[in-house]
Amino acid sequence: QVQLQESGGGSVQAGGSLRLSCAVSGDTDTSDCMGWYRQHLGEEREGIAAIDRDGTTRYADSVQGRFTIAQDNTKTLYLQMNSLKPEDTGMYYCAADMYCTDGYPGRSGFGSWGQGTQVTVSS
Predict the structure, then answer these.
(1) Which of these, 46, 49, 64, 99, has the minimum number of CB atoms within 10 Å of its CB?
(2) For 63-102, where are the E strands, in sequence order?
(3) Contact 74/2 with Cβ under 8 angstroms?
(4) Do 63 and 48 meet the contact criterion of CB atoms below 8 Å apart?
(5) What is the pLDDT of residues 85-97, one digit of tens each?
(6) Which residues, including other chains, have CB under 8 Å from residue 56's CB and lie 6 or more apart?
(7) pLDDT digits (tens, 9 = 90+) for 34-63
(8) Nearest residue to 74 via CA among 18, 22, 20
(9) Are 68 and 80 in contact (CB under 8 A)?
(10) What is the pLDDT, as a whole number, of residue 109?
(11) Are the C-beta atoms of 49 and 67 separated by less than 8 Å?
C-alpha cells in the first residue's frame, strides 16, 4: 500500500482557484489508479476526478471543465480547481488503488486514502 498526504485546501471566494496536492510514499507500484473524492457534510464521498496509468482522466459532471487532475513523475497528484462555487465546499480526499473500478480508485477494497483537506468556498 501507499501513504497519501493531501495539502492545499483552504478558504476562497466564489470564482477563485485552489490547487490541491497529494504526496505519495510507499509502494507506488500499487497506485496505478489515483483520484480525488469530495465529501459534503453529512453525505457520502463522491469521486470527482481520476487518472489511470495511461494518463486517461475522468471527471464528475459537477466539476467537468473547471477542475483538472494531473500527476508528475514522482506520482504526486494534483487537482487544479478553477471557477470555484459554494457547492464545491467539502472535504477532499486523495485515493490510490491498484486499478480503477468504474473509472475511480478506492473501490477495489485494496485502496489507500489520505486524511483529507478542507475546501471552503464562500459566496
Answers:
(1) 64
(2) 67-71, 77-81, 90-97
(3) no
(4) yes
(5) 999 999 999 999 9
(6) none
(7) 999 999 999 999 999 999 999 999 999 999
(8) 22
(9) yes
(10) 86
(11) yes
CA dist 2 → 28, 49, 71, 97, 120 (Å): 6, 19, 15, 9, 27
Q: What share of the chain is helix, strand, coil (3-state, %, to 5)?
A: 5, 50, 45
Residue with cell 467537468: 64
Say how far apart CA 106 and CA 88 lie, in whole Å. 21
Report strand pairing: 10-13 vs 117-122.
Answer: parallel
Amino acid identity, residue 92?
Y
| Grid cell for residue 48 | 470527482
pLDDT confidence band for 101 (50 / 70 / 90): very high
In single-letter form, the type of residue at position 100 comes to C
